[in-house]
Amino acid sequence: MRRALLAAGVAGLTLLGAGCSSSAAGSSGSGSAPVVLRLGFLANITHEPALIGIAKGFFAKDLGKNVTLKTSVFSSGTEETTALLAGQLDAAYVGPNPAINAWQKSNGTAIKIISGAASGGASLVVKKGITSASQLKGKSLATPSLGNTQDVAARYWLKQHSMTATPTGGGDVSIKPIKPNSAAVLEFASGQIDGGWEPEPYATEMVLDGGTRLVNEASLWPGGNFVTTNLVVTQSFLKAHPSTVNGLLKGQIEANTYINANSSAAASAANAELTKLLGKGLKPNVLSAALQYIHFTNDPIATSLATDAQHAVAVGLLTPVKNLSGIYDLGPLNAQLKAAGQPQVSP
Q1: Which residue from 25, 86, 263, 301 has the least number of CB within 10 angstroms?
Q2: Residue 100: how many CA atoms within 13 Å on its side-chain side?
Q3: How many Cβ atoms are within 10 Å of 91's Cβ, its own excluded?
């Protein structure tokens, strides 16, 4: 079973050259000045659009020759938020709660969500024999990091079942933010923790290590749809380089189109990219099982983001967010979707 370990913060760097910058309609602009686009993502399968955009050359083709794409791999969305706010990234694939945090910490000035990327793919996996929330009292659970999307989901679910979990690891259930995610799998397999609310493929790895999937998070949402991964860009970069953002979006759309039309080939390509980044990819049984829980979509599923924010407030990890609807700028995405003959989305 895969045991890939990522150090905290940036764990890898890839440099890609690309063709002429896109205009608002995605056409080339041979006279454009050179641009560097710094893109962050996580090396896991819920960020498959980023992996495919790189592996299949969609970003390189659509960004253009004058754009240099610098990609950085992170071990959590929380770290990506820090990098975005510190001016170290221009764009990133992140979960909803890191995006919300970046929006709030900057008083709505740092980022915009410009596209969805993935939905689903998170579960609470526990030791066999645990079949209810009440049986978790006195137990310990892992999440990727304090305040990240799965961490909020775990705390809110426990609250709904009258169980407490403090940010410092106290309460009825001790929640231990553990990174990288693969370390949580190791601790679960060795009996150091009793379970974890983790994204794929780590939830599936825990199941294959003898765990029980107590909660598939999709079961908690209307229609099973909730945002797992969004594509965000800094407002400063969006304003300065709109044609480059159009190229990035075009690559994102092509990546998801490829994934949904060629699931097996896309899974293999994404796994090959993971192998390049981490030194080891996912075993075929892990990969195929994990992907059953994920849906790749350009729709940011805005209603679930708003609910995520409410949940974070309810568990004391966020103060109420003002004007959260302003976090979206989907105009460029919808222009690219229209040009590609695909349905547009709404915030």
Answers
A1: 86
A2: 31
A3: 26
Residue 261: enclosing H or E segment and its boundaries?
helix 242-261
pLDDT in tens, 29-53: 334 789 999 999 998 899 999 999 9
Q: Facing residues of 143 across strands?
A: 177
Q: Which two tokens stand for residue 295?
A: 């849906």
Question: Please, which residues bridge with residue 69 across strands?
Answer: 16, 37
Q: What is the CA radius of gyration of the chain?
A: 19
Supply the pLDDT for residue 21: 32
What is the C-alpha separation between 268 and 288, in angstroms, rounded? 10
Spans of the chain below 70 pLDDT: 1-31
Nearest to 149, CA basis, from 174, 120, 173: 120
The 3-class secondary structure across 139-206, one letter per residue, is: CEEEECCCCCHHHHHHHHHHHHCCCCCCCCCCCCCEEEECCCHHHHHHHHHCCCCCEEEEECCHHHHH
Of the CA atoms within 13 Å of residue 33, those in its CB half-sphere come to: 2
Q: What are 197-247's pLDDT values in tens digits? A: 999 999 999 999 999 999 999 999 999 999 999 999 999 999 999 999 999
Nearest CA-CA partner of 298 in 244, 243, 335: 335
pLDDT on residue 75: 85
CA dihedral 310, 313, 314, 317 (to 10 degrees): 140
In whole angstroms, what is the distance from residue 165 CA to residue 252 CA? Answer: 37
Which of 45, 63, 55, 52 has its CA nearest to residue 118? 45
CA distance linking residue 235 with residue 113, whole number of Å:
10
Distance CA 283, CA 184 (A): 18
The Cα 63–Cα 124 span in angstroms is: 38
